[in-house]
Amino acid sequence: MRIYKALLGFTFAVCLMLTAPMAWADSDTGVESVRMIADVSQLEKGGSFLIGIEFKLLPHWHLYWSNPGEFGVAPEFEFEIPEGFSMGSLRWPTPMKFKQRKDILGYGYEETVMLSVPIQSNPADTLGRNPQFTAQVRWLACNLDRCVPGKQKVSHTISVRNDRILAYTQEFEAHARSLPLDDPSRDELVTITKQGTLKAGGAPA
User: Fold this and answer.
1) Can you give the pTM of this predicted structure?
2) Distance of CA 46 to CAs 24, 84, 169, Å?
3) 3-class DSSP state for residue 192?
4) How many domains does the chain have?
5) Residue 50 falls within a domain, yes or no?
6) Number of C-beta neighbours around residue 23 at 10 A
7) Is 200 inside a domain boundary?
8) Alpha carbon 17 to its chain's center
9) What H or E segment, with its residue span, contains residue 13?
10) What is the CATH number of the domain that holds 187?
């Protein structure tokens, strides 16, 4: 098992100190659900695929982008992937801009958002194996009244076989359209689409 850490922004301890005037809830995290999905349910040996971490937020709550602005902290991830697999960089959708307390600008996401990471498998992998991928996710969710840190462990399992079977195509199509037009990783998704891995349309006009 290999561990990859994607720790972005300030630590939660620093964030807590910076936001001392705000109220912090003990139970409500501002996030309805967090899950890990993959764009395949079955993968061929040596193939590549995408893992997605999807957040569904409660109304009027937001998460932060990798560059959150004057205030905030981006989600943090600690991935555990099986031996024989390697992981690329996180892909962030285009953020929205919003006003926070005292008219401070922030950048992030509301409602539903997914971040993705490319995974490459080993051509010498064993057929019939069912590798499991795990991530410890930490986040800071805020509304106009308060900010709440949250955490959850998520996992997903795929199968290694002779060919691939696509999964969660609608979710990954929407994710592809949400990436910045000038983001190289968006071009990679389009390239993968042309190869039949993912059927994704272009960005909305």
Assistant:
1) 0.77
2) 46, 10, 21
3) helix
4) 1
5) yes
6) 9
7) no
8) 26
9) helix 12-18
10) 2.60.40.1250
User: Per the domain annotation, does 199 fall within a domain?
Assistant: no
Asked if residue 201 belongs to a domain, the reply is: no
Spell out the long-range contacts of 188-191 with Cβ–Cβ below 8 A and sequence spacing 24 or more. Answer: 188/118, 189/50, 189/91
End-to-end alpha-carbon separation of the chain, Å? 43
> d(Cα 194, Cα 178) in Å, to the nearest integer?
18
121, 84 contact by CB (below 8 A): yes
Domain that holds residue 158: 2-194
- CA 20, 22, 23, 26 torsion: positive or negative? negative
Q: Considering only CA atoms, which of 62, 93, 61, 66 is closest in space to residue 77?
A: 66
Q: What are the pLDDT tens digits along the chain (205 aa)?
A: 555 555 544 444 334 434 434 443 344 778 999 999 999 999 998 899 999 999 999 999 999 999 888 778 999 999 999 988 999 999 999 999 987 777 778 899 999 999 999 999 888 777 788 999 999 999 999 988 889 999 999 999 999 998 899 999 999 999 999 998 766 555 444 333 333 333 322 223 2
